[in-house]
Amino acid sequence: MTPRESAPITGWENLPQPGDTSTGADLARVKWYRNKLVHSEVGKLSPAGFTQYWGDLEGAIERLGGKTLLKEAQSAQHIVLDKSLTEMLNMVRICVNDVAEHAENIDNLQLDIENQKTIKMEHENKIERLHDSLQQGEGEALKLAYELSDHKGTIDKCQEEIEACSKEIEKMGHIMEGIQAKALEGQNKIDELTQHLVGLACKHDTKMKEFDEQIAIQGTQMAKHDVGKTVTVVKT
User: Fold this and answer.
1) How far apart are CA 52 and CA 46, in angstroms?
2) Which of 20, 42, 53, 104 is in Cβ range 3.0-4.6 Å of 16 for a Cys bridge?
3) What whole-number percentage of the chain has pLDDT above 70?
């Protein structure tokens, strides 16, 4: 529904400028002071604050309702609130605060619900993609199964060839073991011959040494004999 009065420059939710006395400004002014007082956590005004609030509201009430409404407002200025009315006002203030808090909680819950809807939609999309991937994987698995069945004959043939090769390798292993045994036997014989040759060489060296010693002795004896002959000839 379109408002009957135009909003002031400052809008309906803000305190109008002091010089703005239009009907829309006075309505916004009364609304602003009402919300300010109802939502106050303290519920009290200083004398200066009360004078300012009352003077501003008094002018707005007179412009909106005339002298009659102004007179009623002025009479309400001097009403003394008893304890029950004060408690009621405090309860109203508490209820208003609770309503505001609940409204904020509702807004937060609504936001959480929207977030959960978004998360739910994302999860549903993931599930759908996983389902598609699963179906694709099943198709691939079935295709591979068919290919494996087609190649079963080749696999069996290869298995037979592998077994034949294994037997041949085993046979070659036995042959290699025999060759290694013969090689070891030949190596042992070579070692024996080598030791025998070493022994013969040692004996030969010993004989040669003895022969050299005998030659040296004979040479010494012959030298002595030649010296004796020379001495005899000289004496003669």
Assistant:
1) 10
2) 20
3) 82
Q: How does residue 213 score in pLDDT terms, banded at 50, 70 and 90? A: confident
Backbone angles phi, psi at 41, to 5 degrees: -75, -25
Evaluate whether 32 touches 15 at the Cβ level (below 8 Å): yes
Name which residue leads in pLDDT, 102 or 10.
10
Helices (H) and strands (E) in the chain, counts: 4, 0
User: Does 86 score more than 80 pLDDT?
Assistant: no
Between the CA of residue 222 and those of 3, 219, 229, 230, 236, what are the distances in Å?
163, 5, 11, 12, 21
Confidence of residue 128 (pLDDT cuts 50, 70, 90): confident
> By CB neighbour count within 10 A (0-12 exposed, 13-18 middle, 19+ buried), where does 70 fall?
middle
Could you tell me which residues come within 8 angstroms of residue 94 by beta carbon, excluding any fewer than 6 positions away?
none
- Specify the DSSP class assigned to residue 16: P
Q: Provide the whole-model pTM.
A: 0.35
Tokens for 50? 């009360």
